[in-house]
Design brief:
Elements (H helix, E strand, L loop, with lengths): L15 E2 L2 E2 L2 H15 L3 E6 L5 E8 L7 H12 L7 E10 L3 E10 H14 L3 E6 H9 L8 E7 L2 E8 L2 E9 L5 H14 L9 E5 L2 H14 L2 E4 L18 H4 L7
Parallel strand pairs: 3-7, 8-11, 11-12
Antiparallel strand pairs: 1-2, 4-6, 5-6, 8-9, 9-10
Helix pairs in contact: 1-3
Length: about 260
């Protein structure tokens, strides 16, 4: 993949609250400006993890070549009870053989998803997809082929997305506000939970960080206590192989793009 443009546009406080659009008019105007500059057709919405449910599903291919969405709906009904009339379903085929198919699935409430979809399509983005913050961060900061268990922490303003990744797949996620929870307590909780779960035979390899340096320093102290290596994510590495293709911004600023790539 190649990054053609990048930018961060601050929104006024209250335009979006905890993933929910509160002021459609302001968001429409900002997205309209972006579309005029980029002239792109596709847009991806990264939502807080509490706003969407993320699954990886593998199913055998049917000789009758059933509709993929129908297969996903049948599988999800086995896992959890969804009212599909109230949800938006989005999926991406991540692996396919002659015998089976692996699909990444996200379902979001229509009350949330349709607002984004309608605004984006009205501004000219005709193809709109969804993913969770944890899903987006995992794709960005864990290198392809790295199967070791990681704890991934993305710090955005006053919110944190904490993900657990193994075999390059998201196996758990937690998003919380620093006003409501202490980051160190959450890290310790998920670290201890990982070690006590019987199906996790491998200890966490390291803690991978994305965020402002002032918050990262306290994490590094806790990581030393846990005897876990700390890595600062290289968010461009999965996208660019040539150094001259890396966008001309500071390393620390690049960490803020983790959920956008």
């Amino acid at each position: 993949a190649r990054i053609k443009r990048f930018n961060r546009i601050p929104l006024a406080q209250g335009v979006i609250e905890k993933g929910v659009v509160m002021d459609k008019d302001i968001l429409f105007r900002e997205l309209q400006k972006i579309h005029k500059i980029t002239d792109e057709d596709e847009a991806c919405v990264a939502l807080p993890d509490m706003m969407g449910s993320f699954f990886k599903i593998t199913f055998a291919k049917d000789a009758e070549a059933l509709n993929v969405v129908h297969l996903i709906e049948m599988k999800l009904k086995e896992l959890v009870l969804f009212s599909f009339e109230e949800m938006i379903l989005d999926y991406k085929i991540t692996r396919e053989t002659a015998y089976d198919m692996e699909v990444e699935v996200i379902v979001v409430p229509k009350t949330v998803g349709l607002v984004y979809k309608n605004i984006l399509q009205a501004t000219g983005f005709t193809h709109v997809t969804f993913r969770t913050n944890a899903q987006a961060a995992q794709r960005t900061v864990i290198l392809d082929g790295d199967a070791d268990p990681h704890m991934v922490i993305v710090l955005e303003n006053n919110h944190v997305t904490l993900s657990l990744v193994k075999d390059n797949q998201l196996v758990g996620a937690d998003r919380f506000s620093l006003e409501d929870s202490k980051l160190e307590d959450k890290m310790m909780h998920h670290h201890d939970m990982w070690n006590t779960e019987t199906n996790h035979k491998q200890p966490l390899k390291c803690i991978t960080l994305c965020g402002p340096q002032d918050k990262i320093e306290s994490i590094e102290r806790l990581s030393a206590m846990l005897r876990k290596k700390v890595e600062h994510a290289d968010v461009w590495k999965n996208f660019h192989q040539e150094p001259n293709e890396v966008p001309p911004i500071s390393f620390e600023e690049s960490l803020l793009y983790a959920v956008a790539l």
